[in-house]
């Protein structure tokens, strides 16, 4: 399992999004990964999901970040 935030973020994405984000410059990947980490930390619903299934919580946070365009 990747330990760096970008690697963990890429792992949480669905395959199509993973390919698209993987093609972006490293700086953009880092920006998206930081937004993903903020989403994981700030959303109480994800905390509950994380207790049940950490990969599902990470995937949901990644989906939200990508839906918002990484903001």
From TrEMBL:
Residues 15-39, 60-71 have a biased composition (Basic and acidic residues). It comes from the Bacteria. Residues 40-50 have a biased composition (Acidic residues). Residues 1-71 are annotated as: Disordered. This is Uncharacterized protein. It comes from Streptomyces chartreusis.
């Amino acid at each position: 399992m990747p330990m760096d935030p970008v690697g963990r973020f890429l792992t949480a994405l669905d395959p199509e999004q993973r390919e698209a984000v993987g093609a972006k410059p490293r700086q953009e990947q880092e920006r998206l990964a930081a937004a993903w980490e903020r989403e994981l930390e700030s959303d109480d619903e994800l905390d509950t999901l994380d207790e049940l299934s950490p990969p599902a919580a990470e995937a949901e946070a990644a989906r939200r970040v990508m839906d918002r365009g990484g903001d």
